Amino acid sequence: MENIIDTIKGLSHQYRDEVIAWRRHLHQHPELSQQEYGTMAFVAERLREMGLEPRTGIGKTGVMAMIRGGKNPDGYCVGLRADYDALPLTEATGLPFASVNPGVMHACGHDMHTSSLLCAAKILTTIREQLNGSIMLIFEPSEEMYPGGARMMMEDGLFDEVMPNEMYSFHCLPEMDFGRIGMKKGRYMASTDELYWTVKGKGGHGATPHMSVDPILIASHIVVALQQIVSRNAAPMMPTVLSFGKFIGEGRTNIIPDEVKMEGIIRTFDPQWRLDCHEKIRKISCGIAESMGSECDLFIDYGYPPVINDDECTQQVHDNGVAFVGEEQVDWLDLRMTAEDFAFFAQKIPSCYFRVGIHIPGTPYSNLHRPDLMVDERSMELAGGFVAYNAFMALEQQIKKSR
Questions:
Q1: Which of 9, 134, 226, 367 has the fewest beta carbons closer than 10 A?
Q2: What is the pTM of this model?
Q3: String of b and e for 81-107 (b: at least 16 CB within 10 Å)?
């Protein structure tokens, strides 16, 4: 037991080149949400090579496999999850293994997540006889698209036979240097809901606006007025973000269009305030439109809940991180307004969603969802090893508690 860290680090280093090759294959062949058939087949084949029996097609394109430990194989179960869908972006990294699928890129690091979990799976199968319980490996599709692969997989029977006792997942963090691990107890990531407006007016000639009902002007008033939800309605201690990402009026220089379409997001942490935001957005939007002689249709797509990390699981990740990489390399993190459908798992199972640094020291920083995102490939050796070690120790900790 004293040498388990050395054993796992040795295995992750031994498998490093193979894991990098897996990541490069996935990076070169990205697939969008709900289209990950090639990725599913690739992951399943790697698991079979490890002697596992993966279930495929869960939630349409997801994969699950069980590692039964040599000690108490039907006992305590730890779930490990990675996501593997890509984004509709044209890659601009210049890498020799850049995407060959036009307009599709792994710009959120999901290729790194998946190859790291495959690395952890290979390590854990190698030391299977030492495991005091079982490991559930979950390779999730469609994290980037509502309703999210987590919910889809659960609705498709992911946990019908085995429900993990704890779950863990991680996300790469470009602003964090390679070698570092970070986590936060309790509230960590926000809920997210998508907003879709159609402001209906009456188009006409730009030179005779008095004969029109200008939806561009009305929609602009709505955009400005809705900012008061964050600045004047949200409690100062309640983080809230309302952002618009799309504003389309299909007119031209001298044509006022008939309608404007807008899209945006609302993100926060409190369930009741989340619903209150929806009602305020609806009342303000429709009220302004009506007062200016137009109509407003608003569709609110109720999305992911906030990610709430279990205190005990998170403390365990922290302590295991200190043991694995050293105290100076482990960070307590702040709240993030980004969102994650891992929240659906965390609602049902005590969980921790943590971070692994991927920034290549000395190079320019590029954010997630950018076409020039780069990953320090050494991070997969570290992540794969740490995910395996944390899972191993979760099983060991449970044995100690039961004594």
A1: 367
A2: 0.93
A3: bbbbbbbebebebeeebebebeebbbb
Contact 268, 234 (CB under 8 A): yes
pLDDT in the model for residue 402: 67
In whole angstroms, what is the distance from residue 254 CA to residue 154 CA? Answer: 52
* CB 52, CB 120: distance < 8 Å: no
pLDDT tens digits along 88-139: 999 999 999 999 999 999 999 999 999 999 999 999 999 999 999 999 999 9
Q: Tell me what pLDDT residue 248 has.
A: 98
Q: How many CB atoms neighbour CB 260 within 10 A?
A: 26
The CATH architecture one would assign to domain 4-189+305-402 is 3-Layer(aba) Sandwich (3.40)
273's tokens: 């305030």
Identify any residues that bridge with 190 across adjacent strands, giving them in sequence order: none
What is the C-alpha separation between 311 and 386, in angstroms, rounded? 19
* 225: phi then psi, degrees, rounded to nearest 5: -65, -35
Tokens of 14: 């031994």
All residue ranges of the chain with pLDDT < 70 are 1-2, 402-403
Q: Residue 184 has what pLDDT?
A: 98
Where do the domains of the chain lie?
4-189+305-402, 193-302
Token output for 168: 């863990």
